[in-house]
Amino acid sequence: MTSFNGTYADGPDLAEFAGLLADRTRAAFCLALLDGRAWTASELARTAGVAQSTASAHLDRLVRGGILAEERQGRNRLLRLATADTAEMIESLAARSPYRPTPVRSLTESNRRRTLAHARICYDHLAGALAVAITDAMTELGLLAWDYGPALTAAGRNWLSELGIADDRPDDSWRPHVRMCMDWTEQRPHLAGGVGAALFRHALDSSWLVHRSTTRIVTVTDAGHAALRTRLGLTDDVLACSAAQAGMSKDSGLRQGGT
Amino acid sequence: MTSFNGTYADGPDLAEFAGLLADRTRAAFCLALLDGRAWTASELARTAGVAQSTASAHLDRLVRGGILAEERQGRNRLLRLATADTAEMIESLAARSPYRPTPVRSLTESNRRRTLAHARICYDHLAGALAVAITDAMTELGLLAWDYGPALTAAGRNWLSELGIADDRPDDSWRPHVRMCMDWTEQRPHLAGGVGAALFRHALDSSWLVHRSTTRIVTVTDAGHAALRTRLGLTDDVLACSAAQAGMSKDSGLRQGGT
DNA sequence: GCGTTACTTCGGCCGCTGGCGAAGGGTCCG
DNA sequence: CGGACCCTTCGCCAGCGGCCGAAGTAACGC
């Protein structure tokens, strides 16, 4: 008698699905995979701080539940988020989730967080303060309009094609090509969807941004500084990693790392 | 050592948030509340088939987590989904969730499911086969365009204003006014967002549709039949509740119930 | 072939979470 | 004021679910 749920027994089993994400370890996997890469099982295990055996079972569940896709490569098990759509859902849940603060343990830790909050990868597009600033600037310049939900204006489409950005279709055609993604550090929307992804790809290809592949951190190159300043009117204080602080040495080191 | 999650310890606590929905009872509450009404605590308890004490604790958690909003009215505790946004999120999770079939226990049970799959309320808009058909018809007639994600065309805006539908802003202005909501019975998108809600409201106001308040079931009136046929070209087989079956007596009874 | 590496399976442990009913506190109504 | 009703608090119980480590299998490289 403890298990019978009367009227609403049939229908979608929301609890089961949500249960997939309702575990620290599995959630850590999904958040890590938000960088869009494919990870191996042991990388994920190490990141989440659990034994391989534990990770293995969790990964089974996530794959079976359709959240992750796996690909076997020899003795490696490669895991990625199943679809862009899935990433979108996880983002939106993450934005609603309470922030779990952890005491800062070191200076490098502090730097990591600051750079992460400034610009990071969010599956296939850019997130963080910089992403929000870009979105704001595009609105300011009349490239984005918000009247009927976020959309590119004619000027916006021109702007993109001047950059040589192919305006390709999103994989799921019924989903908006221009979409907003709630930024969990800024609690404000930033550009996502097909256009957001295309713009991010362009920024990487043009070496405006550099992505060090082991983390989600993205850094702005000198070329990126110039481009974003002239094309979007971004100011230096937005482009630099938040208020000038320690860690500039690291920053500048990374900045000249642009290919 | 069992609880330390290394690198990803800080950041959004996705697991905690997902945990709110990862319980049969709490999920049942949320799904029930998708009808957009405010329910009392005991109504919810009864629907989910748990003791009041159990429900009380669950409701605390859901309110504390920001999923539900509560309002005390004398000795009653009224609960509703916190925002339209919340409803949207729950819908989207429900659409991804596995369908949990339950053996059909009776004829009325079977009828209930059939009518629910045909047309039901989904927070502030219409869902079910009828909603999908309406969306398809609007696309067919060039009222909706999908090129850059779903949007109203100029013709669509005219069509709405001919109906006298105020094209009001959604509460969250950064979210698309025209949005698609994945239908969990049809597994195809139907119209939602501000426009979807306005259209549904109009349909109720004009007595095209009738909503019996104790369930999520919506039925089409004779006026609704006529209107949807002439305005959108819907055919009778879509308008009637799926393939002609038993239960017509009930149907016709409801249909003439239009105010 | 051998050792190494990557992942999986198994058994056992522990703690969290959800369940109940009984009793207690508000609120409403007659 | 008394009874009915709605909700909450409390104590207790049961079971699920996550964790680990050890042993087993499968792939790679020398």
Could you characterize the architecture of this molecule?
The structure is a homodimer of 259-residue chains. By secondary structure, chain A is of the alpha+beta class. Helix content of chain A is 47%, strand content 16%. The N terminus and C terminus of chain A are likely disordered. The longest helix of chain A is centred in the first third of the chain and has 13 residues. Chain A has 2 domains: 70 residues, Arc Repressor Mutant, subunit A (Orthogonal Bundle), CATH 1.10.10; 149 residues, no CATH class. In chain A, the strands form 5 sheets. A 3-stranded antiparallel sheet of chain A has the order 2-4-3. Chain A has a two-stranded antiparallel sheet with strand order 6-7. Chains A and B meet through β1, α1, α2, α3 and α5 of A and β1, α1, α2, α3 and α5 of B. β5 of chain A pairs antiparallel with β1 of chain B, so a sheet runs across the interface. Chain A binds a DNA duplex (30 and 30 nucleotides) through α4.
